[in-house]
Design brief:
Blueprint: H1 10-34, H2 38-42, H3 47-69, H4 84-98, H5 108-128, H6 134-158, H7 175-192, H8 200-213, H9 216-232, H10 238-254, H11 256-268, H12 276-290, H13 303-306, H14 321-350, H15 354-370, H16 384-394
Length: 409
């Protein structure tokens, strides 16, 4: 058979591979959102087993991403370290790993397992991004995350209401963690609705559920990020922005009585350590203990082991992002986190992709505001996998791409 008579296999193979990769990207996005409720749904009697299964699924998805990426020249590889954001992120992950050597956590093995999970998120995302179509890959992750967050929202609505009127579970599905997830997913849905209008409905549902969590910091941060997004997203019509404002007003009005009741309970009968005044006490104690090891900190996952209980309240983190980093990683960690956020801000600001750029900056605003009075046990309020995906998508053309796929003649 001559060269001109060879069957045209290249195009069909490429389409099939792209479809399977989009499915995997959506599955990974779904898992990133859904894992917050795995222990709550099935393993309340054995939380350790729930955590182990969640981590096993995390590593299984990393393996799937690795298998699907073998031999594909469009896969983002070590060349991603040319992107400054990802170099800073690699520095943060490397330092947190090194801190295992001096960590004062209750179990070094458990801390190492959490670090592996955090790093697996980043590696999986890198392997899933195709350098010839980064925005489509990121959109697939977002779609999966929105679907997963919607399922979590249904679980939260069906769960028994907490004594302080919030939805969720203090031990397995904390309202503040739900607030972080729903805020991110609502912004994702708003971004996706530009090209596919039906995404606005899960976006509205997620925003309403965010309000129902009564997670004060997340709600305030989301409102600020939403205002920024509405002001600077040039592709969103004026009519759409007006309707968003109307829906937001109606949602707040419908929950006004509940909000008043919750705020009254919060200011009068809530555990003092969980109020804003109580958090200043946590900050003071955490800062004093952090100053005992100001350069390198007490090590990864040490906060929960070292900070004493405040009455019946046992803080798992410092309720301030920079203070959390200072406690566990010292000034070195603070520099790494500030540098990571700053470099990402500069990259997003200089990017040419309008709507995705606006979304990235809105999410950064959300993370920074939320980080003033809340944070997460591991990583950052701006999820590391999401920072990775957006850094790859917003990178200048050619900075992280492999050689283009050769065309068969």
């Amino acid at each position: 058979m001559t060269e001109m008579e060879q069957p045209p296999l290249t195009a069909p193979q490429k389409i099939q591979t792209d479809d399977s990769m989009l499915l995997l990207q959506g599955t990974v996005g779904f898992f990133f959102a859904f894992r917050i409720c795995i222990t709550f749904l099935w393993f309340q009697s054995d939380p350790q087993l729930g955590t182990e299964i969640s981590m096993a699924l995390n590593l299984l998805l990393l393996l799937a991403a690795l298998v699907c990426s073998i031999g594909d020249p469009r896969t983002a590889s070590l060349s991603v370290l040319r992107i400054p954001v990802l170099r800073w992120m690699a520095g943060f992950l490397a330092f947190s790993c090194i801190s295992l050597a001096w960590s004062e956590a209750q179990s070094t093995m458990v801390s190492a397992a959490y670090w592996v999970g955090m790093t697996a998120d980043v590696l999986t995302t890198v392997l899933l991004i195709r350098t010839d179509d980064t925005e489509r890959c990121v959109a697939a992750l977002m779609k999966g995350f929105c679907v997963g967050a919607t399922v979590v929202a249904l679980v939260a609505w069906c769960a028994p209401t907490l004594p302080d009127l919030r939805i969720g579970s203090l031990d397995f599905m904390h309202p503040n963690g739900l607030g972080l997830e729903f805020a991110i997913a609502a912004l994702f849905a708003q971004y996706l609705a530009r090209e596919n209008a039906p995404w606005k409905w899960p976006g509205i549902a997620l925003a309403v559920t965010l309000l129902r969590t009564l997670s004060k910091t997340s709600i305030i941060a989301f409102v600020a990020a939403e205002i920024f997004y509405l002001l600077y997203d040039s592709k969103m019509g004026r009519r759409t922005k007006i309707w968003i404002g109307v829906f937001a007003s109606l949602a707040i009005a419908s929950f006004w009585g509940l909000l008043e009741q919750y705020l009254e309970m919060y200011s009068t009968t809530a555990d003092q350590a969980e109020t804003l005044t109580g958090r200043t006490t946590i900050w003071a104690v955490a800062f004093a203990m952090a100053m005992e090891k100001p350069w390198l900190g007490h090590g990864i996952y040490s906060f929960r082991a070292l900070i004493p209980a405040f009455g019946t309240f046992e803080p798992w983190h410092a309720h301030n992002e920079l203070l959390q980093q200072f406690f566990e990683y010292g000034l070195a960690g603070v520099v790494l986190v500030i540098g990571l956020y700053w470099i990402f801000f500069l990259q997003a600001k200089r990017a040419s992709s309008g709507s995705l750029k606006t979304l990235a900056l809105a999410l950064l605003m959300y993370a920074l505001i939320r980080g003033l009075t809340d944070t997460v046990n591991f990583g950052l309020s701006y999820p590391l996998w999401l920072l990775t995906a957006l850094a790859l998508s917003l990178a200048p053309t050619g900075s992280s791409s492999a050689s283009p796929v050769p065309q068969t003649i």
